[in-house]
């Protein structure tokens, strides 16, 4: 999941809570689950329900902060204190799977009546797969698309029902919509030097025929040059370089940006804050008819290979998967599955947005999967930032990034 | 046995026990992690061998790798600029305020106490607040500067490579000034009044009294303030994480943030440890200079 509400939250102490201590009479198996979900999000609630069921299994749930997930679980694994189940960000999955830290659940899934891998979107499924085997299950998924302010489109003489579909149209629309006198930028997005920057740029590279292992393809250079144009002409705030997606989209909600690239996690806040008519459209492509692509976010479930209760842990994951149809209605998250009908909410803006995101999801591609993903991602971020600050040309920056990635891949 | 007990009574053994307790504490809580860090910088470390000491030694490979990173020298330069400018700003403003509050006007002690608020606040909170102040489009600082006619176009403090490091320095000066002020105030209060009276009788003006009495008498305090400042500044991580994340394009990346980035973003613990060792070496050099400069000091 690419959602960073506040840095302050990351230092808040993680709490441990034993959800249920009932059934002391019979022998109880206790499994531990670590996840970043709080009481408004699925994992904690589903874990509670599973624990309360009369199945002889008690769940000990620990909430961990986004920034701590990998380092905490790494430390725990290295010292033999890993939990049974963990929710891990999808680009980090391969890091653990490739080192045998996660349990291979291919056979368990094959025998399961509840889980059928064919029902999952290909992107999320690829992120839990390593060397042809399943090392986990997608927990939920998300992607990014283009939000736009219909009122501003109309005021600027653009057709609100015909939003930009190609990169050139996007830049043109941004030029028309940018209005410095009224503090309005054409576009809001994030080119931050963090995983968020990679998350936003990679889809552009993939649409242009490139990818994390082919960063200096001509199309990718062109994509980065378009980003450069957007910043050089001040079609987006220079603070896009240091601002995450959540804060950038905040400027869209307040009417200071006419378009924004972000994900479905923005919808609820936008409904509350935005005092204008808005819509969502698919991420623009290089030219008409070009291959579509988008980013793929959110977390995966995995069982640590050190668990003493693999059966019970898998039962828990089966239960979570069986409740996937509740993800959207109750928690506003998108299940990573194509076999689940998302019910209408009755909120027209939300339903329209959801439809676009569901279509966009079919084109979502995982980052990697590769065990050294953080280093690859860092090379991509460095290239983005060096280009956008004018320190290097897009070509030189991406050549350098590709050289770094080659070093990692070999 | 008797000798051991009596040695406690005559004081010598007791002294040794006291020193031993302190050394033991230091050894466990400061020495071991330090050694662990140094050892790690000579090993090939990987996330799954974190829990053990038995890792392959690779000699100076980590050091060579860190030194040959293209951003090594820029990061070192940023670190030096950050440390010198932060300490300079904190010290000059802190000293000025400390002198100001010796004037004993009504309410001066309360006001001085209020200044400590900045020191009490957690770095991340300070960072979040400065983030808003320094924001390019709607930041208060830009609003004030344009209002005063000092600048015409907004300065993107966080996102312009020419300003990003200074954005963090400004926030850090604000954060550390009050601590400097309090320590220096204490030093000022311990200078005997009669020295100033004698100097005034001899006809020394305020400027001369400052250079010939205040500064020399404050030497030890100033040394302590600056070496503590060096340590606090090299520890400053929160502000970078909250304001610029070391960006854009590493223009505000400093050694301590880089070390964290290696260890906890790229999971390359060996390189993270290597940078920490380099920083420890730097602090050690500074401490030696400080200790030498105050060795002959007699306080009373």
CATH fold naming of the largest domain in chain A: D-Maltodextrin-Binding Protein, domain 2
> What is the CATH superfamily of the largest domain in chain A?
Periplasmic binding protein-like II
Here the CATH topology of chain B equals MetI-like fold
Number of strands of chain B: 0
CATH class of chain B: Mainly Alpha
N-to-C CA distance of chain B: 41 Å
Mean pLDDT of chain A: 90
How many DSSP-defined strands of chain A? 14
List the helices and strands of chain B in order: HHHHHHHHHHHHHHH
Derived structural class of chain A: alpha/beta
**Can you name the CATH architecture of the largest domain in chain A?**
3-Layer(aba) Sandwich
Number of helices of chain A: 17
By secondary-structure content and strand pairing, the structural class of chain B works out as mainly alpha
Using the CA coordinates, give the radius of gyration of chain B: 24 Å
Q: Major sheet of chain B: size, sense and barrel closure?
A: none
Query: What low-confidence regions of chain A span 5 or more consecutive residues with pLDDT below 50?
Result: 1-25
How many domains make up the 3D coordinates of chain B? 1
Molecular structure report:
- The complex is a heterodimer of chains A (410) and B (300).
- Chain A is α/β, with parallel strands linked by helices.
- Chain A has two domains: 7-142 and 297-353, Periplasmic binding protein-like II (D-Maltodextrin-Binding Protein, domain 2), CATH 3.40.190.10; 145-293 and 372-409, Periplasmic binding protein-like II (D-Maltodextrin-Binding Protein, domain 2).
- Chain A contains 17 helices and 14 strands.
- In chain A, α9 (195-207) packs across α16 and α16 runs antiparallel to α17 (394-409).
- Mean pLDDT of chain A is 90; it is low at 1-25.
- The longest helix of chain B is centred in the first third of the chain and has 30 residues, at 72-101.
- The mean pLDDT of chain B is 88.
- Chain B is flat and about 70 Å long.
- Chain B has 300 residues and is mostly helical.
- Chain B has helices spanning 2-9, 12-40, 61-67, 72-101, 108-115, 117-120, 123-134, 140-147, 164-189, 193-201, 206-217, 219-235, 238-243, 255-265, 269-293.
- Chain B is built from 15 helices and no strands.
- Chains A and B meet through α1, α3 and α16 of A and α7, α13 and α14 of B.
